[in-house]
Amino acid sequence: MNPANHSQVTAFVLLGLSQVWGLRVLFFIVFSAVYLMTITGNLFIVIIVTSDTRLHTTMYFLLGNLSFLDFSYCSITAPRMLVDLLSGNPTISFGACLTQLFFFHFIGGIKIFLLTVMAYDRYVAISQPLRYPLIMNRTVCGLFMVASWVGGFIHSIVQVALTIQLPFCGPNKLDNFYCDVPQLIKLACTDTFVLEILMVSNNGLVTLMCFLVLLGSYTALLVMLRSHSQEGRSKALSTCASHIAVVTLIFVPCIYIYARPFRTFPMDKLVSVLYTMVTPMLNPAIYTLRNKDVIIAIKKLWGRKKDFIAHPNH
User: Fold this and answer.
1) Which domain, by its residues, includes 175?
2) What UniProt keywords apply to this chain's record, in alphabetical order (predicted)?
3) What is the DSSP track for 62-97?
4) DSSP assignment, residue 312?
């Protein structure tokens, strides 16, 4: 369906984080550093997981995929935001806006489904350790990943299909630093009450239900750990605590944004920055870089690099 047939607006003005030039320069410096750390940390995890054979397990396969998704998720919004912070006229075309919306929800949907798979993986590993390699084999893990991508695509295409039919005849000022459903719907020249209910159901309630299911599964795991040995309990608790921290950082902001009527609140942009920029940066440190096996793999990779520098012809 051609959006031009339904809209007089051909571009949107992104109001961004601030209209004050001094603050925009400060935000550019800060978020440039955040984005650099995000892409470096997450791509480093992907390289470590793929290069060390000892990390070719289901858990690290899932963690590597999460790092790749975090890198992709941040890259959907951050580069444009950084350019717009120094731009005198931050506009985005209607088509580019819908494209950004699609990939934002596509990658975000995959992350939500992947976190659910990771919770199931930890549940099986702790509750049935002897049968774990049989239950979570490579085929099953691959099928889970395919299902996550298909689920993310379906979730995202629904957002675009509902949004592209709306008539936009002005104003065209989008009160955000990227294109998303809550701000776009408010610019439509029609009554969007029913559409808002559909969007809240698709985004907010689904996210809330997944979050409650995840919390329930981790609670069951924590109860189950009481019967384990001290050493096994400490290791499992450390893993579960990391997972719960990341799940909370991702789901709580999403619930705040999407599981309510699409009205503007003072905290909206701050929360958006949290889950689009800050959380993807923190995930490698919370999930992976403090892991003993990953630290050993990093030392091994660093040792190989030093050997190559010292003996380049070998």
Assistant:
1) 3-305
2) Cell membrane, G-protein coupled receptor, Membrane, Olfaction, Receptor, Sensory transduction, Transducer, Transmembrane, Transmembrane helix
3) HHHHHHHHHHHHHHHHHHHHHHHHT-SS-EEEHHHH
4) T
Q: 240 lies in a domain?
A: yes
Number of domains forming the structure of the chain: 1
CA distances from 266 to 11, 122, 176, 263 (A): 25, 37, 12, 10
Q: How far apart are CA 245 and CA 306, in angstroms?
A: 35
CATH code, domain with 277? 1.20.1070.10
Residue 311 lies in a domain: no
Whole-angstrom CA distances from 23 to 93, 135, 238 are 25, 52, 39
Residue 313 domain flag = no
Diameter over CA atoms, the chain: 70
**Confidence check: pLDDT of 83 > 60:** yes
- Per-residue pLDDT of 149-206, as tens digits, reads 999 999 999 989 989 988 988 788 998 999 998 889 889 988 888 888 888 887 877 7
pTM comes to 0.88
How does pLDDT run across 111-125, given as a tens digit for each residue?
999 988 988 888 888
Q: What is the rounded CA–CA span in Å between residue 82 and residue 27?
A: 8
Burial status of residue 112 (CB atoms within 10 A of its CB: 0-12, 13-18, 19 or more): buried
In a domain, 53, yes or no: yes
Q: Are strands 173-174 and 11-14 parallel, antiparallel or unpaired?
A: parallel
Bridge pairing between strands 173-174 and 91-93: unpaired
